[in-house]
C-alpha cells in the first residue's frame, strides 16, 4: 500500500513540475469567438495623462490593425463627427452604460475602448501605458481586455566602441527622440496589443486561429 502511495505522490509531483500550458486565443478571448463581432466602432480614447494630443494620436491609429485583422471598422473620423454632435466625445461616460444606441445608430457589434495611463518621452524613447478593451453592443460584456506597458526605444547605435563614436550615438539618439512624433508610438502600441486578437470575418484565418498563441492580459515590452 505504501508503495502505491509513494508512486502516486511522485506522479503528482512530476505533473506539477511539468511545463505550463501555453495561452491560446480561444482560452483568452472565448467571448470573441462566441459573439463573432463583425463591425467595430472605435470610441474616443480615455486620456488620463497631461498630454492633450495623446487622445488624437491614438484614436487616429487604432483602426488599421483592426482592419488588417479582418474586421469592418466604422470610419473613425466620420464617427468622431457624430460623437461631437451628440456630446459623446468623452468615452468614459459610456464604459458602464448600455452600448445599444451605438449598435442601432452605427450598426456596430462591439465598441473598442482605450485608456491612456502614461504617454511621455523618457530617456531615449517614448513610454506608454494603455489599456484596450472591446465591449459587445449586444450584451455589454467585455470580449477583449488587455493592458500594455510599451517603451519605444529610439536609441541609435553605430556599433562603435570609441568615445567619439559613443558621443555621436548619444547625440543622434537625443535628436531622434526629439523629432519622433508620438503617432509612431501609437501605431506600434496598437499593432503590438492587437497582434493576438482573434481574426475577424474578413480574414482567411477566421475561426481557424483558436489554437494560436495569445499573450497574457497584462504585458510589457520594449520595441524599436
Largest sheet: 7 strands, mixed
**CATH architectural category of one domain:** 3-Layer(aba) Sandwich
Strand content: 15-25%
Number of strands: 7
**Given this structure, which CATH class of one domain is correct?**
Alpha Beta
Query: How would you sum up the global shape?
Result: globular
CATH superfamily of one domain: ABC-type transport auxiliary lipoprotein component
Using the coordinates shown, work out and report the CATH topology of one domain. Answer: Rossmann fold
Q: Let me know the average pLDDT.
A: 80
Element-level helix/strand string: HHHEEHHEHHEEEHHE
In terms of per-residue confidence, which ranges show pLDDT below 50 for 5 or more consecutive residues?
1-20, 162-180
Tell me roughly what share of residues is in helical segments.
25-40%
Summarize the structure.
This protein is α/β, with parallel strands linked by helices and 224 residues long. It is built from 9 helices and 7 strands. It has a domain at 22-117 and 129-146 and 186-203: Rossmann fold, CATH 3.40.50.
Could you describe the 3D structure shown?
This protein is α/β, with parallel strands linked by helices and 224 residues long. It has a domain at 22-117 and 129-146 and 186-203: ABC-type transport auxiliary lipoprotein component (Rossmann fold, 3-Layer(aba) Sandwich). The chain has nine helices and seven strands. The protein has helices spanning 2-16, 25-28, 30-35, 54-61, 63-68, 76-85, 100-106, 163-179, 182-193; strands at residues 39-42, 46-47, 72-73, 110-121, 125-136, 142-153, 218-223. Strands 1, 2, 3, 4, 5, 6 and 7 form a seven-stranded mixed β-sheet that branches. Helix 4 (54-61) crosses helix 9 (182-193). It is globular and about 45 Å long. The chain starts with a helix and ends with a strand.
